[in-house]
């Protein structure tokens, strides 16, 4: 938890020594924070160089990731971390499970300091899945690399052991403005406000009205049913979320923990359904079996409030 201890807590605790934080991310059991000065800080597990500070020693307090400045965004994927610099380059460190570090000489098991992911320029956004990574480039195309066992790279291929260390373009997607990923499913919003998805669909998390059995995953992007005007997205373990321009929140996929927010637990829902009771939603996030939303609205007394 980054508070200098290894004691679990049922209540929020403040991460030690961090101010001016503008973004956070995690990969497995390591936490990351991006500060306004463009530096990245990390804490937690470090056996595979996950802290990016040149060591493999765990830390219960934040330490600065070595050599990274001018960072605009961060993401985590399994045991690998990523940073997007303001110059449009992408950097990675940590474990190299399923080639998440990009094209490197074999066998590279991990790196404890950031290295540049080769072949990528003009990147404007990054996202991390369970075994793979995604970037959005300034020309509106999406590129992916890493594990592809359920078609999550969106290149028309997949299968047990499938992977690629070289970033390759996701097929058939142009005009993309937003990307997000769950562990084995990826999502992209196009400039027309439509949402597209690919990868694992065992719980209906593609939102296309069907549930796929293992081995019959969706290896090319397909349009999520019935959603227009999408302004924000998030991917959970088994489900997806979308915010629409009218401030409503929609969810689909697995519901084993009530994460669809529809008052039920258990039944998967393979098409987007509105989360009741939420209006004025501006942002959405997802964890393991849980969803989060930020709302902004004017109460009766005229003062802006949030949730």
UniProtKB/TrEMBL annotation:
GO cellular component: cytoplasm
Domain of life, source organism: Bacteria
Keywords in alphabetical order: Guanine-nucleotide releasing factor, Repeat
Keyword Metal-binding in annotation: no
PROSITE patterns hit by this protein: RCC1_3
Start and end residues of each RCC1-like domain: 7-289
GO molecular function, one term: guanyl-nucleotide exchange factor activity
Protein name: RCC1-like domain-containing protein
